Amino acid sequence: MTRAQLAELVDVNPQTVGALERGDHFPSLDLAFRICDVFGLPVEAVFSRTPFAPLSTELYRKPAPQGGDADVQLDRAD
Amino acid sequence: MSSSTAQTDPTLIDRYQNFRTRRFLKHERTYAHALPRWRTQRRRRALVVALAVTFAFMAVVSVMCAFGIRWAPLLWLPACVLFYPVWIVLQIVSGRQGDAPQAALDEYEVQQRNSARSIGLTITQYLMLLPIFYLIVGSVITGGTDVDMAYAGGLMATTVLVIGGCAPAMILGWIRPNPEI
Q1: What is the Cβ-side half-sphere exposure of residue A24, based on CA atoms within 13 angstroms?
Q2: How many domains does chain A have?
Q3: Residues in chain A within 8 Å Cβ distance of B109
Q4: What are the distances in angstroms from CA B26 to CA A70, B21, B23, B111?
Q5: What percent of chain B has pLDDT over 70?
Q6: Is B127 within a domain?
């Protein structure tokens, strides 16, 4: 889907879609829901305050080892 | 019992805004595809610079009139000849977003238009101090008898008002990126 197509579907200027992608503009709740309706996804799947990780990372993320990284300590050899 | 329909009846302001929006959209449809090569950011910035040069020329003409140069007022005509075509082209290629009604813009465009208008108002307020002080101080010094000063003050005020009126469109024409392909 191009920016122009998405812009037409949610009734905004294509440059506004570009501004949303670049993070130059935070959409209103109404515009956010209109965009989510186009993709059929919930808001948290389309918008995030932090960049989304690649989809492959989300799907195939390795489970954390038992005990976690906090337990790993390096011994200094004197 | 109050009628809930009374609140939804369009007021005079609503009807005027609807009229403005319809008229704006009609003009927008007419000129939507005019001057396609001038819609790039580079060309729009060239138009903004040309307008700024025209305004500087107008300001110089008003100062020349203040010094009583007899032929200086005639220079206002070439300034207008420069101004109108450049201004009209800038308005066409930038979609007249500087003075567009709110209903004709999306939320991001409204936000940008309001910011540009706010800057334009600030520019107008500060620049208008120049002809105001010139006229006040000058009238006190000359006792209000200098015709050149009154004429020059009028030209200065006109120049400042034109600058302030054009500033939102100039700002938007400068900052808007190239059209999406």
Answers
A1: 15
A2: 1
A3: 13, 16
A4: 65, 8, 5, 23
A5: 95
A6: yes
Interface check A27 vs B, CB under 8 A: yes
Domain interval for residue B156: 34-97+105-175
What is the domain count for chain B?
A: 1
Tell me if B13 is assigned to some domain. Answer: no
DSSP assignment letter at B1: -
Q: What is the spatial distance between Cα B128 and Cα B3, in angstroms, rounded to a whole number?
A: 48
Nearest CA in chain B to A24: B108
CA dist B134 and B15 (Å) reads: 42
Q: Which residue of A has its CA nearest to B175?
A: A15
pLDDT exceeds cutoff 80 at B115: yes
Express each pLDDT in B164-176 by its tens digit: 999 999 999 999 9
Q: Do A15 and B107 touch (CB under 8 A)?
A: no
- B111 contact residues in A (CB cutoff 8 A): 25
